[in-house]
Design a protein that fits this description.
The structure holds 2 protein chains of 2 kinds. The N and C termini of chain A lie far apart (42 Å). Chain A has 5 helices and 5 strands; from the N terminus they run ββαβββαααα. The longest helix of chain A has 17 residues. Chain A is of the alpha+beta class. Chain B is of the alpha+beta class. Chain B is built from 21 helices and 31 strands. The termini of chain B are far apart. Classes of the chains: A alpha+beta, B alpha+beta. Chain A: This is Isoquinoline 1-oxidoreductase alpha subunit.
Chain lengths: 164, 781
């Protein structure tokens, strides 16, 4: 059985599993990291959105064998550690998570880890492009929320962006 | 000099009223025997139903609605719900309802915090396992949770506080009258003591009956204040556990390979050896709904499902498509009733709409963990009718009901889906067949194609008017059957609902239709009727059941009547509204949304109302149907007309958590938009086409309005209302009205895009689930 090694939420992990198993299942079924959710398995619903080397991606569509040993995977569980202590909010969380709490965004909550990870990546991408977040950027988010929390998601992203 | 407590009310009457109010707040509860303080209330305490007094020819829901029915059904049970005070100073309560996102754990915690004078953060809410002794009282539906539990839960908490005060009086050496409780601490002249310290001291070795008096609304410090969800921190950190997140020893990932036609059944597995030899696969079994595979990971289970070669029996709708079902409904339509006394000069407005199948499609697909042994079974799943599920599973496994334990798990959405425990029943069968524990999960493609759906239906309306008056309004709704075989959540009523030839279910359907539907205008002779046919589909109560379709059809005709009678849609509704509450919500949205402001060609406002769940609501929307908007391109997406603004006002009576109510309205708004514009299932050649979120178009960020305002109306009512479904119907209706005004064309079917070409390639039926892509790293951002 091939040994797969990568960095998960700041720690190097090694798992014995075939190359073609998608990373989502390595995280959820083998490593017990369940923040990234299954909503479709075909990179459409975006409920599993996590970060690879600081950029958003969907582990349901990446075979674990495609990872390099130094690749840094961040799931919602590791998001707070992506910012310095001083940048964390009253709950010790990433400013985007704090904005999510402040706006009381979640309803059933199932898609929200993916929404937050997508939001953080979107804000960083817009900054890399040297511009500020627009309504059109928010319109382009593909993450589905079947509870229809879109209004508060938009409010929280704007607020989180201000605090990031 | 006359003493007056309330201006303008004589003192004697004010005292009578006050005494009456206290009488209505005085209840009996119990302290149960135990090592720590356990306070209990009888669910039979659910409040008296509100019988509205309405002057003219009321429809059934005005006098006795679905919520009264559910609440009265609960009243029949004589069983106890309990609040426990723990030594760490927290209170805990196992709610006999399901939390699926609607916020009932938070509102329940608020009720307990209120009566106990405890911080909200110190109230722990779990979900009760199936409790058969609760009979009808463990069903989550009809937005009834708070309506039916508001009083009993508060009584249990008040009993606990009374026992804590008595114990504190003994410990502190003070009289109860001198004690004050605040934030979990009781303070008197001699000192103070915490609830945690009193938890065992206040316990009783026998059952004690206690009389309690609930707080008056004027004393509320928690109820009615905006609070964040108690599970929000868990949700945003990934720590909130749903069924598939639970780790049950030995319960490995399990999926089902399903037939290529809807509800087809397996005849023979052709390659068991090949599937069994797939990487990670541990078990393969033929079960009633397909071929089950169990593997080390869900990814390997998906691969194994795709490798299955099998022979199948066709399902009951093999070869049929949307057009066949529409024709069947048309054939089942009964003639509109003739009105005998209609004046000769009366004019008629008519309309006829088709509403296609829609999926309730929760994010968290049907899933369940089952550990079935020789002599017992343990099930974990998001269940809104756990008692019924427990009974069905016992029957399926050949066990007695008490051999089956059903744990209710918080679920990622329901929208009616979890009234049926399709995943739990399947998991139990698979676990028994394989002889090992399983963690069963439906693929998204299964969920869309085979999952419960809102039935296709037609709605026809005839309305007549003469000389500024509407003389009659008749609506006949003809629908594929809505499945209510869960009954009231337990076996007896579900058996009644399952009588041969659909007779029992039709009785349920007609009762629920009659108890929920209402035309809230003075329209003379009003009649609404339901005809249901065809039980071959997997249907159920999708969020707000009949109301979104019925209300969209009616409000479109209300706009037609207004136009025919030369009146503005808002003024017309204000003039004909039956009650002031309705005029108040209409005026609220009209003011906040600047009704009647000049709009560019191709854009328009729409306005509509709805009345249900003890509340009334109005919705004002603005829609943009200009080509530049309609034709905007987004990859594999439905764009089309865009709702640009929504103002929604609701009078939900006494509101426990306004922040939660606002959230539910915001969600319902997106449901209403989806029903009007984008989301439906297409039946083609015996199966539903949709197999992905990029096939089934629930509202996305590019469809959602950028401008949404929810207005919660002040209310003097002491009656709590329902929240979870109350935002859908008025929104759907308002969007339909706005679209008609913007385009000058009234749709004949919904959603309006249903007959457009698919903007996607249809996924395969054999194999029934798509492979996961491997190119995810090409799309990082």
């Amino acid at each position: 059985m091939p040994r797969q090694t990568f960095v998960l939420n700041g720690k190097t992990v090694t798992v014995d599993v075939a190359d073609d198993v998608r990373l989502l299942w390595v995280l959820r079924d083998l490593l017990g990291v369940t923040g990234p959710k299954y909503g479709c398995g075909i990179n459409v619903c975006k409920a599993c959105t996590s970060h690879i080397n600081g950029k958003a991606f969907n582990p349901c569509a990446v075979p674990v064998g495609a990872l390099k040993p130094g690749d840094k995977i961040t799931t919602i569980e590791g998001l707070p550690e992506q910012v310095r202590d001083s940048e964390r909010g009253p709950n010790g969380l990433h400013p985007m998570q704090e904005a999510w709490l402040d706006r009381d965004v979640a309803q059933c909550g199932y898609c929200q880890p993916g929404q937050i990870m997508a939001a953080v990546a979107l804000v960083k991408k817009v900054r890399r492009e040297g511009r500020s977040l627009t309504e059109a950027d928010l319109d382009g988010i593909r993450n589905i929320c079947r509870c229809g929390t879109y209004t508060r998601i938009r409010e929280a992203i704007k607020q989180g962006a201000r605090d990031m | 000099m006359t003493e007056q407590l309330t201006p303008g009310v004589p003192a004697s009457l004010a005292r009578d009223l006050a005494a009456h109010d206290v009488g209505r707040r005085r209840f009996i509860g119990y302290v149960l025997g135990g090592a720590t303080l356990v306070a209990a209330a009888d669910m039979a305490l659910a409040g008296t139903p509100a019988h509205a007094a309405v002057p003219s020819a009321p429809q059934v829901p005005e006098i006795y609605d679905l919520n009264d029915f559910l609440t009265d059904s609960n009243r029949a049970t004589a069983n106890l719900i309990t609040v426990t005070i723990n030594e760490d100073g927290t209170a805990s309560f196992d709610l006999h309802r399901a939390e699926v996102g609607q916020g009932v754990t938070t509102s329940t915690a608020m009720l307990i915090a209120e009566e106990l004078d405890l911080p909200l953060s110190k109230v722990r809410i779990g979900l009760a396992d199936a409790r058969p002794e609760l009979l009808y009282n463990q069903l989550t539906g009809g937005s009834n949770t708070t309506i039916s539990t508001f009083t009993p839960i508060r009584v249990a908490a008040a009993v606990a506080k009374g026992a804590l005060l008595d114990a504190a009086a003994i410990v502190l050496g003070d009289t109860v009258a001198l004690l004050q409780s605040k934030e979990g601490v009781i303070t008197g002249p001699s000192g103070s003591i915490t609830y945690g310290e009193l938890a065992t001291l206040a316990a009783s070795d026998r059952v004690q009956q206690r009389e309690v008096q609930l707080k008056a609304p004027s004393e509320f410090r928690v109820i009615g204040t905006p609070r964040n969800r108690i599970d929000a921190l868990a949700a945003v950190t990934g720590r909130k556990d749903y069924t598939t997140d639970l780790q049950v020893p030995g319960a490995l990932p399990t999926m089902i390979c399903r037939a290529p036609t809807l509800n087809g059944t397996p005849r023979r597995l052709l390659n068991p050896g090949e599937v069994k030899a797939m990487p990670g696969v541990t078990h393969v079994a033929v079960v009633s709904t397909g071929i089950a595979v169990r593997a080390r990971t869900f990814g390997q289970a998906i691969d194994a499902v795709r490798a299955v070669r099998a022979e199948w029996n066709d399902g009951p709708v093999a070869g049929q498509s949307d057009e066949d079902i529409v024709a069947e409904l048309r054939a089942a339509e009964v003639p509109m009733p003739k009105l005998p006394d209609l004046p000769l000069l009366a004019k008629t407005v008519s309309a006829d709409f088709t509403f296609y199948f829609r999926s309730n499609s929760a994010m968290d697909t049907n899933s369940a963990i089952a550990d079935v042994r020789e002599d017992r079974a343990e099930i974990w799943s998001g269940m809104k009718s756990p008692i019924y599920t427990q009974q069905r599973i016992a029957e399926l496994l050949g066990m007695t009901q008490d051999q089956v334990t059903c744990h209710v798990v918080q679920a990622g959405g329901s929208f009616g889906r979890r009234l049926f425990s399709d995943g739990a029943l399947e998991a139990a069968e698979v676990s028994q067949a394989m002889g090992v524990p399983v963690k069963l999960m439906w693929h998204r493609a299964d969920d869309a194609r085979v999952g419960r759906a809102h039935p296709m239906c037609t709605s026809r309306i005839n309305a007549t008017y003469l000389a500024g008056q509407v003389l009659s309004f008749q609506q006949v709704h003809t629908s594929v059957e809505t499945d209510y075989r869960h009954g009231l959540g337990e076996y007896f009523t579900s058996v009644a609902a399952d009588l041969p030839a659909g007779l029992g279910n039709l009785g349920f359907a007609e009762s629920i239709f009659t108890m929920t539907q209402e035309i809230p205008y003075n329209f003379g002779v009003v009649a609404q009727n339901l005809v249901e046919v065809d039980d071959r589909f997997n249907t159920g109560s999708m969020r707000n059941i009949y109301s979104p379709d019925v209300r969209a059809a009616s409000e479109l005709v209300v706009d037609q009547l207004a136009k025919a009678m030369g009146k503005d849609p808002l003024r017309f509704r204000l003039e004909f509204a039956k009650e002031q509450r309705l005029r108040d919500v209409l005026n609220a949205v009209a003011k906040a949304g600047t009704w009647g402001r000049p709009m560019a060609p191709g854009t328009a406002q729409g306005i509509a109302v709805h009345k249900e769940y003890k509340g009334v609501s109005a919705c004002l929307v603005e829609i943009d149907c200009r080509p530049a908007t309609v034709n905007r391109e987004i990859r594999e997406a439905v764009t089309g007309p865009r709702v640009t603004k929504v103002v929604y006002a609701i009078d939900a009576g006494l509101v426990v958590n306004p922040r939660g109510l606002e959230a539910q309205m915001q969600g319902g708004i997106n449901d209403g938009i989806a029903l009007a514009l984008t989301s439906s299932l297409h039946l083609r050649d015996g199966h539903f086409v949709e197999a992905s979120w990029d096939n089934y178009f629930y509202t996305r960020q590019w469809n959602t309005p950028r401008d949404v305002e929810v207005i919660i109306m002040p209310s003097e009512s002491g009656q709590v209302g329902g929240a979870g479904e109350a935002g859908v119907a008025a929104t759907f209706a308002a969007v339909a009205c706005a679209f008609t005004r913007a385009t000058g064309r009234q749709p004949t079917y919904f959603p309006i895009n249903h007959q457009d070409p698919f903007p996607f390639e249809v996924k395969s039926y054999v194999p029934p689930v798509p492979a996961s892509p491997t190119n995810g790293l090409n799309f990082t951002y």
